[in-house]
Amino acid sequence: MVPYFNTSGPCVAGEHHMLPPERRLTRAMELVEQGRYFVLRSGRQTGKTTCAQWLVDHYNAAERFAAVWLDLQTAREQPDRALAFRTVLNELDRSLARDLQALAVESPDREDLLKDPATALLRQLSALSRQLPRPLVLFFDESDGLVGEAMVSFLTQLRAGYIDRRKVPFPHSVVLIGMREVRDYALSAEERRTVSWLGTTSPFNITAETQTLAPFSAGEVGELLGQHTAATGQPFEAEAVTRVHALSQGHPWLVNALADQVVRDVQDRSVVLTADHVAAGKETLILERRTHIDSLVARLGEERVRRVVAPMLVGEQTGGDVLDDDLAYVAGLGLIALRGGRYEVANPIYREVIPRALTHVRQTQIPDDPAWYIDADGRLNVAKLLRGFQVFWREDGHLAAEAFHYREAGPHLMLMAFLQRVVNSGGRVEREYGLGRGRLDLIIEWRGERHVVEVKLRRRTTTEARAVEQLATYLDGLGLSEGYLVLFDLRTGPSWEERIYEKALEVDDKRVLLLGC
Questions:
Q1: Domain ranges of the chain
Q2: Beta-bridge mates of residue 93
């Protein structure tokens, strides 16, 4: 069997192209050896389960620990404590039979344990630890999916066992695996008050630290893609490898999904895979909204996510109602990352997916024909395109923007929908945005040419001059001599005749066409 790039479920050695999991687990393995209880946190499909299952096999093969991995997905969102713990105990028994089948382990009577759900897991784990010939290490996957009383009881029982484990047998090490920090687990304000006697807002204050899984480096992306070359003889050009890393920022699922798409698109193994193949593969992933991407898109409807992403789209700072926990939650989902002291969208693919997902319905209802804005020589007439948007914005666009769930980003989203509708016929739009940037930068690539469109909100009379200077600096960095500035006027006084205008300017040898909306 020839290995392939895996995009569904944990990776299996020999079946999938994969990097050695132990590379990402040095500190986690140190914590297990020390008998710590800790959190292994990372975004969706970044290799958490693959790493946990590898650790279980590694420890059980060495007979140093008795390691068990159990998935709490089946108890997810079950607030009833008794029902949740019945599921957890059933899953524990199933996992013991799978991972420790060589060891004869008897579980206490299930119904007796469940007479008191508040101690059921505590007593079960104590009984198991007493029977096993080696220290027990438990990996609770999807632990952040528990909610309400079930979540509080789950964490407090682990805490109680940890504190007494020098006198009463209990697991040597426990690892909680999920997308969030323990402080971000789904607890209501009332439930947090319930556990405030611990002296912290977290009912699991015994955790040693939180470990995260690092993304693949550029070298590791090349190593992974090289496994395909070794197996099939089909090489990736160096520029293609660089493009995969740049687009994915090393996110494991995105790396594998891009590579998988490319090798499926180009099945002739004598063809060298190029950066253009990678760009085409990226477009397919976005248009088809594969499961991973679709799950992220679904999160955009959550209010906590909207409060962070909406100001990102317009380049402003978050409002006063946004808490550190909101930023941590969205970062835990993998949507954003802190780089250079500033939060930004985690990678270029997500940066493109977010506005395209938010504007898809509007985009399909825009009446303008893309052919209207293409000259006889096939070049895109960007000035004519933006003038067309001005007409659309005045007649229909400003009203449609009001209907967006991301209302504060409505003008920006409407412009992106309009441009995407046209550019889909032969080009692409790259987007640069993030908290505190003060603007949205769009780069339209059309048949080898690049056109920069900067978008800003006009709230004061000085905005126009500062915006033109910013655009000139940005153009200089890109080596371009001309660009476009779209100013959305949010002032209440000006009429449409005052808002809709056009100016041709020149700043520092850069030509700027300014269009008011």
A1: 21-212, 218-288, 294-516
A2: none
Q: Give pLDDT, residue 292.
A: 81
Q: Which of 1-15, 64-78, 448-462 has the lowest mean pLDDT?
A: 448-462
d(CA 386, CA 456): 14
The residue assigned the tokens 């007649």 is: 395
**Degrees to nearest 5, angle at CA 411 with 449 and 290:** 70
Instruction: Say which CATH class 21-212 falls into.
Output: alpha beta
Question: 275: closest CA among 117, 486, 56, 445?
Answer: 445
Asked whether 152 and 81 are in contact (CB, 8 A), the reply is: no
pLDDT above 70 (res 200) = no
Residue 124, amino acid: Q
Question: Are 347 and 215 a contacting pair, CB within 8 Å?
Answer: no
Mean pLDDT, residues 35-44 taken together: 90
Write down the mean pLDDT value for the chain. Answer: 87
Strands (E), 57-149: 66-71, 136-141
Neighbours of 480 (CB within 10 A): 16
Between 32 and 64, name the one with better pLDDT. Answer: 32
| Fold of the CATH domain 218-288 | Helicase, Ruva Protein; domain 3 (1.10.8)
pLDDT at residue 490, rounded to an integer: 80
Task: Please check whether residue 359 is in contact with residue 414, taking contact to mean a CB–CB distance below 8 angstroms.
Answer: yes
**Phi and psi at residue 251, to the nearest 5°:** -60, 120
Say if residue 39 is exposed, middle or buried (CB neighbours under 10 Å; 0-12, 13-18, 19+).
Answer: buried
Which residue has 């941590």 as its token pair?
A: 328
- Give the helix/strand (H/E) hosting 510: strand 510-516
* pTM for this entry: 0.86
Spell out the residues 6+ positions from residue 271 whose beta carbon is closer than 8 angstroms to its own: 234
**Half-sphere exposure of 508 toward its Cβ, with a 13 Å CA cutoff?**
14
pLDDT digits (tens, 9 = 90+) for 392-415: 989 887 887 777 788 888 899 989
d(CA 517, CA 467): 14
180-193 burial string, b = 16+ CB within 10 Å, else e? bbbbbbebeeebbe
